[in-house]
Structures are given as structure tokens and as C-alpha cells.
Amino acid sequence: MDYNSDRSKLPLPEYGRNLQNMVNHIMTIEDRNERNRAARTIIDIMGTMYPYLRDINDFKHKLWDHLAIMANFDLDIDYPYTPPSPEFFNTPPKRISYSYNQVRYRHYGKTIEFLIEKAAVHEDEKERELLIKLIANHMKKSYVMWNKDSVTDDKILLDIEELSKGKIKCTELTLTETKDILFRNQKKQNTGNVSGRKYQKPDDRKKMRQ
Prior knowledge:
The chain is mainly alpha-helical. The protein is built from nine helices and no strands.
């Protein structure tokens, strides 16, 4: 029995072993023109395997790169594009620096902290008050959703003052009632459940009997 586990590893398994055998064969062709013609035939076969990718930019370029990879970069043909070098794949990727931004209150998120910083220095007074109210209502909604508990307006306003480092102080701001927030969340859940049900045809058998 010929098991895949006993065969050589495929560089690009998505093309299959038959296509890999074709690539291995053209590497044994001595005539250069014949190799070029065989390589173009393989490229056409590779393209027909994934026709939905033909609209992607540089699709042909990628196919020729894949051919070079499948040939282990040893195929001597006239490439229409500069083939990639083995060093490109052997070089480890650059390390991506991890963001160490600390979030003071996770249930509010980093975006809220950013918005509070912008609201604290906003020049237009009316727009500033409106922005602060929108932020506060969103914070209250997030608090209720994540903590599953009610929260007073004073708590939200104190958190805004803390996150703004004392730049925003508003003690007389009236926010959305907690019961209204819970009602809206419940309404959204119910609406989602109803929309997900399949339509059931009414039973007309009783009408037919009458």
C-alpha cells in the first residue's frame, strides 16, 4: 500500500500531489523551450483550479511564485516575473510589538477613555455638553451590560471625572434610566429571536373540512 505518510511532503498541499508530480517531471526535461512550454501548461492548470481568484491583482504573478516554490526554486525556465528567493521564506517575520495600553475600567473600554479625552478639550460648549451626555449614557449602558447590575448616575459621572483627570465635572446631568436600558436590551434579544424563526404555513385543513 502506498500511504501519504510515506510520501514526500508537499510544499503547497492545496494543489495536490498530481500537480506536484507534473512539476517534478518538467524539472527532468532537458530542452529549455520544452520546459517553458510545460511550465505555462502547469500555470494554466493551476489557474483553472481556482477560477474565483482570477480577479485578484497579480494572480498570475502568484501562480508563477507558487510554481517556483513547488520546484524548490531549482526550475530553470524563463519566468515572466522575478521568482522569489528561498531566503525570503527562511527569514523569520519581524516581531510585532504588543500594545501595553492599560484600560482603567474594562467594561467601558479604551475607546471611551479616548472620547473622554477629546470631550475634555472640546471648545464648543454646547457640543461638549452633548458629547459628554452621549458618552455618559453609553458608559451606563456598558456598565449594566457587563456587570448585570444597576448603577446610579452619580457613579457614572464620578467615573467620567476620574477618567478625565478632573477636567470634566458634571453633577446635574440626567442619564437614561436603568430600566429603559434593560428594556431595550430585552427588546433587541426578542426581535433577534423572532427574526430567526422560519415562517410556518398556517394549517388550512380545518377550513377544507368545513
